[in-house]
Amino acid sequence: MKKPSGPPETVTLAKIARAAGVSSSTVSRILNGTARVSADKQRAVEEAVQRYNYRPNVLARSLASGRTHTVGVLTQDISSPFYGEWLRGIEDELAATGLSPLFVSGHWNAADEQRQLEHLLTRCVDGVIVLHGLVDPDYLRAYADRVPVVMLGRPLEPMPRLVCLGVDNRQGAYDVTTRLIELGHRRIAHIAGHALQPDSEQRMIGYRQALEDAGLAFDETLIERGNFEESGGLVAMDRLLDSGATFSAVFAANDQTAYGARLAMYRRHIRVPDDISLVGFDDLPASLYSTPPLTTVRQPIYDIGRVAADAMTRLLRGETVPNQIMPVELIERETTAKLVEAASL
User: Fold this and answer.
1) Longest distance between any two alpha carbons in the chain, whole Å
2) 11 compared with 60, residue with greater pLDDT
3) Closest C-alpha to 336, from 253, 254, 280
């Protein structure tokens, strides 16, 4: 019987150097991109690395450079489809840099977020990417004095090692509410997100501005607060329907909220969009396949993750990285229709 092959042989830097006919220090500098050598030496080292499938010793590199080549990523809910897209973009972008992500979750709790951020420091991460959250801004600024920070979804004053990336939530909400008004809707309910979450508040502002510009009054009875999750959308939609308020359209603060609202209407035999039009925000992959496909505001979630990872690598190289607001786009599908007065609730 054939014996198990066992783990592969450890290939050392010295072995690559011998195979290429150069010194170990030359191999190290070539791999780090800091060597100025002839094309023949460069090619010899690259061929030896490929022949022996050499993988640099991460621990040795960390000891030599004083860096761990890891980036901490503080998310709020690692199981969320929204955060999953962000994390996938971060992971894909970091893969080509030699940096590895270390994921932790804060669960929308400022104390838990701060505890997780302190934990990342004990792991000696080179930098941290923070996805939303409620931790105190002053704490984040002090944290950025220790390691570079890229902040997603929260506008903070820029610092040399603190970069904020986001999307134009206000404009997106304005555009989707305006589109409902163009379709003839005058009573538009809004299921908002977390009260202290900047995205939620900016979307509320955009919604109110669209109403004001159209000469429509803002009505508190048409506002319910959700939690950016399907369960919150379901409960908030039930409250709206039980309140007796009349409305013909609903702007949900995000797609997950819209999914829950859609279920609440389905259970009451309310047709979308025949009886009530429904819109979301985010354009999660599942929104294309919901029943019916959801009209929403597309923010480039995956791309933002990649931009965040790129910003971190640039900060680690000592570059100056500006804050950035990325545009959004209205995506019309099949959950919106022109208002038919007799069908509105």
Assistant:
1) 85
2) 11
3) 280
pLDDT digits (tens, 9 = 90+) for 260-316: 999 999 999 999 999 999 999 999 999 999 999 999 999 999 999 999 999 999 999
4 Cβ partners below 8 Å, 6+ apart? Answer: none
- State how far the Cα of 248 lies from the Cα of 250, in Å rounded to an integer: 7
Helices (H) and strands (E) in the chain, counts: 12, 12
* Residue percentage of the chain with pLDDT more than 90: 68
Please give the single-letter amino acid code of residue 345: L
Counting beta carbons within 10 angstroms of the beta carbon of residue 231, is it exposed (0 to 12), middle (13 to 18) or buried (19 or more)?
Answer: middle
Contact (Cβ atoms closer than 8 angstroms) between residue 103 and residue 125: no
Taking a C-beta distance cutoff of 8 angstroms, is the pair 20, 38 a contact? no
End-to-end C-alpha distance for the chain, whole angstroms: 76
The contacts found for 241-247 with CB under 8 angstroms, 24 or more apart, are 241/265, 241/268, 241/270, 241/345, 245/187, 245/189, 245/219, 245/221, 246/187, 246/344, 246/345, 247/187, 247/188, 247/189, 247/222, 247/276, 247/344, 247/345
**pLDDT, average across residues 54-59:** 60
- Secondary structure of residue 21 in the 3-state scheme: coil
- pLDDT at position 41: 82
Q: Whole-model pTM? A: 0.78
Kindly list the structural domains of the chain, giving each domain's residue range(s) and its CATH number in brackets, ordered by start: 13-56 (1.10.260.40), 68-167+300-326 (3.40.50.2300), 169-299+331-343 (3.40.50.2300)
Do residues 265 and 277 lie in contact, with contact meaning Cβ atoms separated by under 8 Å? Answer: no
Q: Where are the alpha helices (DSSP H) in the chain?
A: 13-20, 24-32, 39-51, 58-65, 81-95, 110-122, 137-144, 169-182, 198-213, 230-243, 255-267, 301-316
Residues in the chain: 345
**13-20 helix and 39-51 helix, angle to the nearest 10 degrees:** 130
Distances (CA, A) of 64 to 28, 55, 98, 207: 11, 16, 15, 54
Count of Cβ atoms closer than 10 Å to residue 344 Cβ: 17
